[in-house]
Write a structure and sequence with these properties.
Length: 552
């Protein structure tokens, strides 16, 4: 039997987030990344979404392990949920492994999960696959690309990357190794598409540090900075510039505190002696000697910055003259939340600095010229754009063709589609179950299309509850129906309509009685149908109708 090499994206294609890809050959499957995504605006009540792993669960005996490229939520956020159903070893760099451990500890899964720590340059074997970690630059420390040797040839997966020749900490991306792999021959390249629409090169993280220096110099105000908690390099730059201008630094926000603790223990972050102080001590210090690093760069309602803005923070109140620096770009969909926080900060009299033109944030993803360089170094036979919305994948595919990959050897895939590779050809061949599994509180996957449809109706048109009391002896209506509404109409201004609803309901029940309909479900169905018809005709709205029958 001839085995086939299959690449199966389960998340991260046609979207930003919930990255997960399976690579399969014969009786072996490895999984790359295990990320979450954020819910769409119409996913009412949903906290996060994670990839559908039905295919992996059905083939659990083949899965040799999960390999994580770096510690961002869209690459590790689904680990606790997936591991609960698919308990396989995890392989990651030290910082990434530590962040995963924090998540597993929260879900009481840490001691039941095997995590193997690997460093850039390490090579390990899983089934028929040999995996090598390769240093890349990104907006979090310890990010790696993967060189995966398969029976048919080498697959290079870039992970999220950029080419930063002056990184704040750590090594420069290992371009020589990518070039060496290209010389040896690369079967397929899977490359980050996020910034394919941006010409040129992504700026170095050091540019942000230069901006911080300008904003700290000669500043006699209290400084509050919010950024992504995971960006250890940026935290280091904030601490360094604070120390330079003899300011104390306090951290607020759970995720920020966790990152600081883990990164310090592992040696990825170094704070000069006596610079860090506890947040409870901050109000005892002169304002011009204080820097507060806070969570909340995306306007999250439970974040420290949000609580400061709306006077809900236990230790910190925003005062007129405070300089608030937002050192992050908005994740698509979060713009309104961020604007709300910024407006409230201005209301409090704060000076808010968030202009993108001031180099307060640089991307951690490669722009066009860096993507071209990766293609030029690796020189793959086959090219698969990943990590991006569909238009990004298309544009990256065009870039691949421009760099010499034969058009027939470029594949634009979607989640769930099976990419089948031989030594000579690549094609889409079949599909597996995929999609978004919704997480609502403690519930995973228990909110489906029916529940979401009901939530849409409740959010858009409200609810009407109709209580009907029937005789237990002969199902005769004993009193007028009772009408309750929530989110539909203001009762005091709709008394005539509610009386008409009672009439429609009463006539429906009496008609059921006359026709010998005694089954409660049938009676409820007719009430629902007639009331819905009346309300739509009268109001052009379709609230959820909930008939209830009580028996006396």
């Amino acid at each position: 039997m001839t085995h086939k090499l299959k690449i199966i994206p389960l998340g991260g294609l046609g979207e930003i987030g919930k990255n997960m890809t399976a690579i399969e050959f014969g009786s072996d499957i490895i999984v790359i990344d295990c990320g979450l995504g954020f819910p769409d605006e119409d996913m009412y009540g949903i906290d996060i979404v994670i990839p559908d792993i039905s295919y992996l669960k059905a083939n659990a005996e083949k899965v040799r392990g999960i390999i994580i490229t770096h510690g961002h939520e869209d690459h590790i956020g689904a680990v606790p949920y997936v591991i609960h159903d698919l308990n396989v070893p995890i392989y990651a760099t030290p910082l990434t492994a530590a962040l995963i451990e924090l998540k597993l500890e929260e879900h009481d899964l840490l001691y039941n999960t095997q995590i193997f720590t690997k460093k850039a340059g390490d090579i390990f074997r899983l089934g028929c696959f040999s995996i090598e970690f390769i240093t890349v630059n990104h907006s979090i420390a310890d990010a790696v690309a993967l060189a995966i040797k398969t029976p048919f040839g080498t697959i290079v997966h870039t992970g999220d990357f950029k080419i930063d020749l002056t990184p704040v900490q750590g090594k420069v991306i290992d371009l020589p190794r990518f070039g060496q792999l290209g010389n040896e021959g690369v079967l397929a390249l899977m490359s980050d598409s996020t910034n394919v629409e941006k010409p040129g090169l992504s700026a170095s993280e050091r540019k942000v540090g230069e901006t911080f220096d300008i904003l700290f110099k000669n500043c006699d105000q209290r400084i509050i900075i919010t950024t992504f908690a995971s960006n250890v390099h940026r935290l280091q730059q904030i601490i360094d510039v604070a120390a330079k201008y003899k300011r104390k630094v306090a951290i607020t926000g759970r995720s920020m505190e966790n990152i600081l603790r883990v990164a310090t223990v592992l040696g990825y972050l170094n704070a000069p002696e006596n610079v860090l102080v506890d947040i409870t001590q901050i109000n005892k210090l002169p304002k011009e000697k204080v820097v507060i690093i806070s969570t909340g760069s995306q306007g999250e309602t439970m974040s420290a910055l949000y609580r400061m803005a709306f006077s809900e923070h236990r230790q910190i109140n925003i005062s007129p003259g405070d300089r608030v620096i937002i050192s992050a770009s908005a994740i698509p969909g979060n713009e309104n939340m961020i604007s709300k926080v910024i407006d409230e900060l201005f209301h409090k009299g704060a000076e808010v600095i968030y202009d993108r033109n001031t180099a307060l944030h640089v991307s951690g993803h490669a722009s066009q010229e860096e993507q071209k360089m990766m293609l030029a170094l690796v020189r793959p036979k086959f090219f698969i754009p990943v990590h991006g919305e569909y238009r990004m994948l298309v544009k990256h595919a065009e870039l691949g063709k421009l760099m010499g990959v034969e058009p027939k050897n470029v594949v634009i895939a979607e989640n769930g589609k099976i990419i089948e590779i031989s030594k000579k050809s690549i094609k889409l061949n079949g599909a597996v179950q995929s999609g978004a599994v919704m997480v609502d509180g403690m519930g995973v996957g228990d909110v489906g299309s029916v529940v979401m449809r009901d939530r849409h109706r409740l959010a858009e048109d409200g609810m009407v509850v109709i209580v009907v009391t029937l005789s237990s002896w002969d199902n005769v209506l004993l009193s007028d129906p009772e009408i309750l509404t929530r989110g539909f109409v203001y009762v005091k201004e709709a008394e005539d309509m509610l009386e008409e609803l009672k009439r429609v309901t009463k006539e429906t029940v009496l008609a059921c009685e006359e026709n010998g309909v005694k089954d409660w479900s049938a009676i409820k169905s007719r009430i629902k149908s007639n009331v819905s018809g009346y309300l739509y005709k009268t109001t052009k709205r379709s609230p959820m109708i909930l008939p209830l029958i009580s028996e006396i």
